[in-house]
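Incident log, support desk, overnight shift.

02:14 A customer reports that sequence design results differ from what the structure should imply. Their input is reproduced verbatim below. On-call engineer (initials T.W.) acknowledged and began investigating.
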């Protein structure tokens, strides 16, 4: 970093130290100078005191601009009353007007401008009345010169105030944007975690349910019919491999691996394959499709229906009990697609959509993304029923 940039950075980071150095410098050079150079008439100590009061408050010009300006204005009024000399300490006047415009309140800024004009007028009249051969034209010229000096100082101070407030506004906006970006990042991460949890539950829960059911059947069948046991073990192997492929695909997406599997996500065309895989677990399934689609569903909505059917069939395998049968219906109408999955088992232990299970809760979250609804609960005649409805997307 270059020296002037380092100095500029230090000045911006230490404004009060800068004011202290500036105020002491002006006091030493222009305040005491009055007593040293003008003390030949015998009143040097009085002028030194007056110069000190006029310049030393500049130390607080930024921290307490109103108080510092009040002391300086009072000192200059005293000067107008006791002497007609122009003191070097009067350099504090434009600095005070600038400081009020830049750092004071708005009313203090205009009050400083008005006080500067009044002081210029009083100084012009005072100097003109004590000067030999003075004329009104000379007093007017003095007033115009001093007034322009006050006006220029106030203008630069007001511009500095506007720039400072603009920078503060931009910094506040940047800070708010950063906070909002962090919040959006956290919300996106939480949403992605929920999505991953739903995907992993749907994949693992269904596959493990099939594997457990087939394993139990193979254990009993191995004692009576080894052929059935071999078929059952083949089903377990196929289900495990399919689940492993799905897990690898999901983990590949999480790793952002360019070589991750590009296998498409399940959709409605994959429903027959899901039903066949579930039937291999020994569950009798009656499938029916009623009506035709009036318009296409988004790919995400088709995945939601697939996962909802997968979760409902998994619950049948886990909770319906032995020798249960399930019915699956896809019904298209003019409003959207409705999925019905019911069984004649034990009612899934009265499990409802408000229960704490991850499966039905994840199903409800998925469906809610497409403004659909889920109803799940035991049926009066025994068994369990899941109803999922997803409306068509508005064009």
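02:41 Re-run completed on a clean worker. Output:
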């Amino acid at each position: 970093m270059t020296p002037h940039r380092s100095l500029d950075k230090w000045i911006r980071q230490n404004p009060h130290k800068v004011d202290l150095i500036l105020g002491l410098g002006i006091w030493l050079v222009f305040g005491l100078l009055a007593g040293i150079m003008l003390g030949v008439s015998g009143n040097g100590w009085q002028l030194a005191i007056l110069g000190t009061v006029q310049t030393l408050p500049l130390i607080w010009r930024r921290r307490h601009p109103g108080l510092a300006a009040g002391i300086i204005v009072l000192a200059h009024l005293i000067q107008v009353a006791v002497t007609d000399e122009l003191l070097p300490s009067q350099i504090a006047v434009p600095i005070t007007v600038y400081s009020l415009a830049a750092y004071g309140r708005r009313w203090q800024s205009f009050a400083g401008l008005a006080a500067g004009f009044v002081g210029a007028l009083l100084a012009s009249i005072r100097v003109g009345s004590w000067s030999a051969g003075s004329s009104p034209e000379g007093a007017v010229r003095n007033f115009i010169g001093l007034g322009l000096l006050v006006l220029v100082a106030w203008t630069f101070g007001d511009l500095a105030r506007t720039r400072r407030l603009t920078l503060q506004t931009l910094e506040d906006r940047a800070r708010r944007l950063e906070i909002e970006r962090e919040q959006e990042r956290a919300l996106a991460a939480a949403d992605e975690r929920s999505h991953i949890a739903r995907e992993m539950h749907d994949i693992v829960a269904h596959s493990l349910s099939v594997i457990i059911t087939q394993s139990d059947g193979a254990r009993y069948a191995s004692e009576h019919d080894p052929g059935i046991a071999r078929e059952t073990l083949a089903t377990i192997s196929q289900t495990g491999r399919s689940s492993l492929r799905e897990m690898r695909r999901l983990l590949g997406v999480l790793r952002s691996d360019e070589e991750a599997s590009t296998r498409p996500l399940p959709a409605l065309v994959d429903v027959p394959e899901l039903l066949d895989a579930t039937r291999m677990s020994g569950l009798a399934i009656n499938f029916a499709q009623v009506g035709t689609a009036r318009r296409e569903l988004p790919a995400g909505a088709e995945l939601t229906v697939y996962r909802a059917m997968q979760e409902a069939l998994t619950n049948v395998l886990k909770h319906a009990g032995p020798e249960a049968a399930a019915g699956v219906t896809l019904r298209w109408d003019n409003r959207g697609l409705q999925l019905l999955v019911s069984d004649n088992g034990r009612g899934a232990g009265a499990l409802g959509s408000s229960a704490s299970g991850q499966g039905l809760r994840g199903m409800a979250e998925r469906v809610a993304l497409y403004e659909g609804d889920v109803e799940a609960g035991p049926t009066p005649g025994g068994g369990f029923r899941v109803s999922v409805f997803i409306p068509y997307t508005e064009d």
